[in-house]
Amino acid sequence: MRRRPQSSSANESTDTSKTNEEAKFNGSIHIKSARRSGFVWLTLFAVIVYSSWAVHYYQFESLPVPLTAEQAGKRGFSEAEARKHVKALTELGPHPVGSDALDFALQYFLAASEKIKRTAHWEVDVEVDFFHVKSGASRLVSGMFVGRTLVYSDLHHIILRILPKYLPEAGENAILVSSHIDTVFSTEGAGDCSSCVAVMLELARGISQWAHGFKNAVIFLFNIGEEEGLTGAHSFITQHPWSSTIRMAIDLEAMGIGGKSSIFQAGPHPFAIESFASVAKYPSGQIIAQDLFSSGIIKSATDFQVYKEVAGLSGLDFAYTDNGAVYHTKNDKLELLKSGSLQHLGENMLAFLLQIASSSHLSKGKAMDDDGQSNHDTAIFFDILGQYMVVYRQRFANMLHNSVILQSLLIWTTSLLMGGYTAAVSLVFSCLSIILMWIFSISFSAFVAFILPLISSSPLPYVSAPWLVVGLFAAPAFLGALTGQHLGVLVLQRYLSNVYAKKKQLSPVLRADLIKLETERWLFKAGSLQWLVLLIIGTYYKIGSSYIALVWLAPPAFAYGLLEATLTPVRLPKPLKLATLLMGLAIPILVSAGSFIRFTNAIIGLSVRFDRNPGDTPEWLASVALSIFIAVQKHLLPFQLVFCLFCHLLLYSLV
């Protein structure tokens, strides 16, 4: 007897039951939409860009109010008086070594020095020395003059030594403040370096009213020969009898004109920068400038190299860098000197000299320098908004960086172990997205720079209008980053689609939203991972400016851990909170936004000197170098973390 086949109603009942269960399961899951308002993200993007520019303006463009002689008083610093010196020197026209104009400039400084001597405090001794160097030769072992023997002769320097009259032993230990009078043949040198020596004259006048309470002497060196290969500083440090008493050297320079005079070299011993940071009214200085300068990227040299290399001294090197395009050109004129520029440097230097000249801790002999040769004793320094300066030593930096690196690696290892194979592959694809962003961003921007000389009447049209780089290089870099990241996102989403396809209980709509949210989080994590890599490299090679990687790694990681992270690997992803981004970006923007913009402006100015021998290099080379720097900053500027998400969400709104 044959059994009759069962009715299909049983199978249908089973399918219906599964469908009902899936619907019930999907209905029990509530996630926020992966799509966010474009207006919200555009607003956030605008706020971050505006905040970055505001930090730059407050940190580098905000200058103190200049004071008149009456407002400053006998013991203060007056920009009005210093500006008179600049005006008198620029009226002489170019005054290179060997010119009659330089002789007139020397007579001007000699007369001003004698006036300072006559008007000094009655308990202060001011010695004026018109020092003549018959001949000499220098051979430096580093920098742009390495391997060259420079012979010099018939140089004249004006030297002031200020010390308490009734404490003769103060002359055994001195602080040197130095700058050069001579200019190149093509410019009157309002910035380089009449502004510096003018500040020194006004400082010497003020110091002459304070020095009766000093424990150390202050020597002001107005040298000639810097533009001829640092020969002025070399001749003084090797031939003048007072040079053996110097324990610290301060050099004032200009690679532009006006703005804030910032510290761009310090050390090797940290005593000088630590003292400056503790008393300066408007501290300004970035170790990233020191790293760039010492790397040789900036083809220049200052007298500070001689004081460190030949005399073995520690100290500080200041420089004006605004309007870098006029450096060593006929346009280096007094009209470009911003109001407040001299006051900024003068007040900082006056406070510093009063502190250091009254200190009993100024090193005797060369012990300071012997202790400071090892890397762990050098200083990491940077200012915040031009109001505070952070200084800590390399040994502490190594401990701090290694601690953060180890904790980060532990967190990443734990996260990958919990996430398993899926997490590891997702991390690889998200890193691929970041790499593609770099490649396409640099390529697009460099391509525009390469063709710029072919389509423009000027190979460097952005020098006179720096904002042009936003459209010329930043916009292509943004488009390239958008393209590269989108390709990486497609690969990552394809993989996540295969992963979530195995979860049959999820509806297609829910799976699509979860994939978008998972992609978003992996992009955020990959953006942090690149900073961890940079921090590891910077710490290994003891690069001072690796603190930037630290401030871009730690605060976003803390914000993510506080507001987003979970210890369970089975929780479904949720949209990143705006609070996470705002909390994670606040400190990095405050610390580094202004510096990135500042160095972009500096490189724009220096691009006119990229080709020191016109015709030897292609016209497009300077623009390509600048474009690569700007493209890199698309990943290093203060909106980098939100940039990944912004591009990601913008693409979703277009698809």
Could you walk me through the main structural features you see in this protein, from its secondary elements to its overall organization?
This protein has a 7-stranded mixed beta sheet with strand order 1-2-4-3-5-7-6, with helices on both faces. The protein has a two-stranded antiparallel sheet with strand order 8-9. It has helices at 9-28, 38-61, 69-72, 79-90, 100-119, 190-207, 231-239, 271-279, 287-295, 303-309, 341-357, 367-371, 394-455, 468-501, 508-540, 547-563, 578-606, 621-636, 640-654, and strands spanning 124-139, 149-164, 174-180, 217-223, 246-254, 261-267, 314-320, 379-384, 388-393. The protein is elongated. By secondary structure, the protein is α/β, with parallel strands linked by helices. Residues 1-10, 369-376, 638-643 and 650-655 have low confidence and may be disordered.
